[in-house]
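My current task is to audit a protein record that another person submitted. My question to you is simply how this chain folds and whether the tokens agree. This is what I was given:
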Amino acid sequence: MSVVRLLSGSAVSAVAVLLVTTASPAADQISVQGVRVPSVFVPRVPTPGTPGSTIDPMAKPRAVQGGRRLTAQRAEAFAEAARRGLNYLPGEVVVKFRSGMGTASMQRALDAVSSRPNTDGLEWHSDVAILRDPSQPDAHQLAAQLSAQPEVEFAEPNYIARISPLEKQFVPGGGPVPTPPDRPTSLWRSAAFRTTGTPSDTDFGAYQWNFNLINMPAAWDVVPGGSADLIVAVVDTGITVAAQTMTFPLWTGSAIQNVPMAFAVNPDLPASRLVSPRDYAFLDPQGPVIDMEGHGTHVSGTIGQATNNAFLTAGMAYNVKIMPVKVCSSYWDLMIVRAQNGQTGFLSADAGGCSFVDMSDGLRYAADNGAKVINMSIGGISQSTVLRDALAYAVSHGVFVAISAGNDFEDGNPTQYPARYAADFEGVMSVASVAKNSAKAYYSSTGSWVEIAAPGGDVRQGVGTTDRGLIWQSTLVGADSVTGSAGVIRPRFDHYDKQSYQGTSMAAPHVAGLAALIMSQTPGISPAAVERIISNTAKDIGEPGRDTSFGNGLIQPRTALYGYSVNR
């Protein structure tokens, strides 16, 4: 879901990354670590369908075919949706034909559209297809025309969720480089830390009130960090999987130039724990996953950031593997693709978003590639059969899903999707947000779909950048921190430090992290059983019994873990 983000007073500068300047390549080239070739460079990544393969962060890049997934047409659609305040991509519909329909039958249905598109132009995603019709930007009208055809089971606009511009951080400039402490290599890379009591992470006590509120140190006594064999997928803006420099075309204010951009792996979530990455929003799916926004990186920190390593902050399930699944295009993703297409000018800060079809693809990919828990801190106000079907698919494959319940309480409190669908499935939970005192966060949406609550922060904007009532994790410092201005024209993405965000986006990964610990404790447990444990052991903090603000109450990790099996 949308979140409000405030930056800590701690400032940062570059992590150790070699920035290589190259000769200006052609606009359709990307350069990594100074090497020029056409198409996209990628580090060594796992073969799709190979659960649990890990990444070599220093692997020599190799070229792959296919280029970028984000086309100029799609980038412009996102930009147009932002300009017009639309909750869908103009001119795009998702259509599912009835079972048994051949090409001729599908074509009869498409002939109902005034532009009479051909079936050859359909873009297939599992059992649904995207139809693009630039001549009819009103996707609702397109969907209505197709839904009326007997060959069509359903058609709907390709809805989008958007990362709100209110999320942008207040960013100071300058500062030291945060680096991991000097530690024996075997300890730093260990996947079997055992945390008992308060961990050694330097900012745990002062900043991570959220973990103390739910008594995580006591929970770690029962299940210390979870199993290294368990995979949690973060379906979000991505998580950068390799240290490298990429050269992208970019409008710099006066011309389109080829700009080297440095990327680094989060120093508090080693690349050895990032597995089976997939990009549905920007680069070729086989290419590297990179986060140019920070949201997905922050979410992953709550779930599984390295813990008890005397560095920054802690994570709940700090031994599990994290699967980065990028389904959201950010401002910089769009700016790069527009520049490659020769388009000049700057976009609005809220350009970009998460297509519901991409979100659905991400859910299915994670379920097919070994994830046992999925976190989806994304949502909107549009119903989507495609997204609901993808949730059903994930649960049927033994995957527990945590979803943010929404941040729109003060904006009319509309029903949120996919959070609303959590009520339809045992094993999918929608998560509300609470403050330091366990009160409902002012923004946290309420409704019958709210099933559980977790810490998410509760500070209104403008109260200052050092307030510790938000959720702090190691993540990217915003690209605009390089100059302290939203007009930065040469961004870099290798700055990490503890950052403060808030929202139900931050509450959901607490539930995902708890689910990962439960599944680590009891391999083979069903998603439905995980939901029952979390619900039945929650602390009732609202009206007696289940209510629309907190669901079944505030999660209690130690009770959920200790009450289900013996203390290890």
